[in-house]
Amino acid sequence: MTDPGNLAEYFGFTETEVEQICAVHGMNFEEMKAWYDGYCLVSHSQEGDRSYSIYSPKSVVESILRHKFGSYWNQTETYEALKIYIQMDMDGLKNAVIRMLAGKRFL
Fold this sequence. Notes:
The chain is α+β, with helices and mostly antiparallel strands. It has helices at 15-25, 29-36, 57-66, 79-88, 93-101; strands spanning 13-14, 39-43, 50-55. It has a 3-stranded antiparallel beta sheet with strand order 1-3-2. The chain starts with 12 loop residues before the first strand and ends in a 6-residue tail after the last helix.
């Protein structure tokens, strides 16, 4: 995703989220950042540009589950695989995705 628009912060875990996940699971955030902080996405709006450090959910979750850092990014899902989860609509996911794509805000 090279131009995510207003959805930039939703294309992975934000730095704050990863920091919290590491604290809960006893993982070193600085090491996590060194391994997986590879995406900087920018959201453009009338209020100005906002940058997000985005982490691959697959990499973060695998490192937490295995309690080991490694190259997990190559195992990430395609849209076709994610489509199944969106269509399942658990906890209103499908509607939430539709609302985000329409530019609606969530609190």
